[in-house]
Design brief:
2 copies of one chain form a homodimer. Chain A folds into 2 domains: 64 residues, Arc Repressor Mutant, subunit A; 36 residues. Chain A is elongated. Chain A is mainly alpha-helical and 110 residues long. The first copy, chain A, is built from 6 helices and no strands. The model of chain A has no long low-confidence stretch (mean pLDDT 93). Helices cover 79% and strands 0% of the residues of chain A. At the A-B interface, helix 4, helix 5 and helix 6 of A face helix 4, helix 5 and helix 6 of B. Chains A, B: It comes from Thermoflavimicrobium dichotomicum. Chains A, B: Might take part in the signal recognition particle (SRP) pathway. This is inferred from the conservation of its genetic proximity to ftsY/ffh. May be a regulatory protein. Chains A, B: This is UPF0122 protein SAMN05421852_12312. Chains A, B: Keywords: Coiled coil. Chains A, B: It holds the Pfam family UPF0122.
Chain lengths: 110, 110
């Protein structure tokens, strides 16, 4: 089975630009458009097995990039710390109101 | 001339793990150890011109990765926002004292 999870979507968000154009097309159809392997095969004029193998290789590449750069791990760490920051600021409502938009911009950088 | 700047050092920090082992060795000697091209050539048993070309190609790869992933750009954006956050918190010394260690941990994630 191929993974079809939120994590794979996030990995694709982070590293998709490093894949080949062909790999990007396949993953977009599979993950973002939610097509079946059969539908992609018919549309691309290749076998279902070829689609399966290509997506599996692209997934392996995304996991390899995550092992090397850890952007998804860092993304989760930042979100956790932002939560902690918000909780700590509960005690200082005025300060919280002032810095909350800045924290929101910070999180958007991911 | 090859670039030998803080920016190249940062790019290597961010993307070095995606280069080949050979490229990593060359860039480490050139940027981190501050060896000359001639010294590297002698140590590696290749010509000075070959070292030059290899480092130039590795630099191009680092720039290409930055164009695609923008980690260095994001790094600078985060630092700018952290500064803004610190400035805004000047008015709330107690809140600042509480959240400063959390902000420090946030920045360390980069």
């Amino acid at each position: 089975m191929l993974e079809r999870t939120t994590e794979m979507n996030l990995l694709y968000d982070f590293y998709g630009s490093l894949l080949t154009e062909k790999q990007q097309t396949l993953l977009e159809l599979y993950y973002l458009e939610d097509w079946s392997l059969g539908e992609i095969a018919e549309h691309q004029g290749i076998s279902r097995q070829a689609v399966f193998e290509a997506i599996k290789r692209a997934q392996a590449t995304l996991h390899d990039l995550e092992n090397k750069l850890g952007l998804l791990k860092k993304y989760h760490e930042r979100r956790k710390i932002a939560q902690e920051l918000s909780q700590q600021l509960e005690r200082y409502p005025e300060a919280k109101k002032t810095v909350e938009p800045i924290i929101a911009r910070w999180l958007e950088i991911d």
